[in-house]
Amino acid sequence: MAKERPEKADETEQMIEREVGKEAAEGGGAGDGRDMRAVLLSGFGGLNKLRVARKVMPEPQEGELKIRVKACGLNFIDLMVRQGNIDNPPKTPLVPGFELSGIVEAIGGNVTGFEIGDRVMAFTNYNAWAEVACTPAEFVYKIPDDMSFSEAASFPMNFVTAYMMLFEVANLREGMSVLVHSAGGGVGQAVAQLCSTIPNVRVFGTASSFKHEAIKNSLTHLFDRNADYVQEVKRISPDGVDIVLDCLCGENTGKGIGLLKPLGTYILYGSSNMVTGETKSFFSFAKSWWQVEKVNPIKLYEENKVMAGFSLLNLLFKQGRAGVIKGVVDKLLALYNQKKIKPLVDSLWALEEVKEAMQRIHDRGNIGKLILDVEKAPTPLMANDSTETSEAGEEEEDHEGDTENKERMPFIQ
Ligand SMILES: NC(=O)c1ccc[n+]([C@@H]2O[C@H](COP(=O)([O-])OP(=O)(O)OC[C@H]3O[C@@H](n4cnc5c(N)ncnc54)[C@H](OP(=O)(O)O)[C@@H]3O)[C@@H](O)[C@H]2O)c1
């Protein structure tokens, strides 16, 4: 995952280490207006590895914009980063987060097209979950006046991923059919909305049953996540579907390819199945990849099927395709302005509530996107509640910070 220009990422890691070293004490900073609040991941593992700390505020380098952050997107990949469940994980401590919205506060050298005060959304290669972030201008996009900061922080990762898969990789056209897992989540809802912009596209989705009432109008057919979706799809469409979007990996890969019509496209874009508890499970990792390894390219040839993979972060930060993504963001903003798409925000959380926000995804509770709202004050703790009772919870060796880990009620939009 995610390190275009390794020297840049390394520099970022060193910067974090330097900054953390400079902190006068844990929770303390310069206190002279040049420090900021940020979420810090102290090491890979469970929720107790996260805390809010004061850090030295970054300044924009050549080609970068400094953004006063208003809202940050919380994505499934952030859970995987926390666990160290990604390829080539960077060194900790680090500030997590890959997307944000806010206001341009300073402009580095050689940047054109932006002014101080612009309302923007942006991708960052980590470091988004803070009061201030710097990122290259090629990853920053101005937002419409009527787009809220929480909508803007929900937009880039989910809608660009959905758009790229549907239109750039799979070539979605009128009359086609699509299967998407986690249909009630951030990417799932973006897929459903984008499919609705093309006539007569049928969308089959899987999601936890309690979400069905809320999302039923966005999909054509909805199945419980534990149902035998292969049988359900075949019952409705014996030929299968044209596009399978798989973020579950493992045995779903074989099932998804099996469901394709001739000339259909299967896209692997996630491995949520590898998250089986609060900390990384080597067993689920090995099991998932063992199943994927069994795909036979000769069979794909004989059956006229396409198998593809998509990773937005690699495309942006490793493979230098910011220009392609800028073009896609322009198209998506046009759809937003035409009121054809609109991010679905699940809930807003203060930076200090990051553990509870992550727990909500572990518990499969979200419908749409979770947002860290930088200006939001933490909601008072609920008496006698603890996130330790969750479905996702596993025994943690390190119980540092557990006293903070009480359940809070999210602010539901
Ligand atoms: N390749 C890329 O460029 C890219 C970009 C963005 C996201 N992604 C991937 O797309 C998928 C969705 O991402 P998202 O950020 O939009 O998250 P999301 O769908 O909002 O994630 C939460 C939902 O995932 C489902 N889920 C499936 N397995 C789970 C597990 N083991 N633990 C907890 N929940 C699980 C749950 O919904 P149900 O219970 O309703 O199924 C849960 O509510 C993830 O796999 C993510 O890594 C890939």
Automatic annotation (TrEMBL):
Gene Ontology MF terms: oxidoreductase activity; zinc ion binding
Region Disordered, annotated ranges: 1-33, 379-413
InterPro entries, sorted: ADH-like_N (IPR013154), ER (IPR020843), GroES-like_sf (IPR011032), NAD(P)-bd_dom_sf (IPR036291), Quin_OxRdtase/zeta-crystal_CS (IPR002364), SV-ATPase_mito-regulator (IPR052100)
Domain Enoyl reductase (ER) span(s) in chain numbering: 45-372
UniProt cross-references to PROSITE patterns, sorted A to Z: QOR_ZETA_CRYSTAL
Composition bias type Acidic residues, residue spans: 391-401
Annotated family: Belongs to the zinc-containing alcohol dehydrogenase family. Quinone oxidoreductase subfamily.
Name listed for the protein in its UniProt record: Synaptic vesicle membrane protein VAT-1 homolog-like
Organism whose genome encodes this protein: Xenopus tropicalis (Western clawed frog)
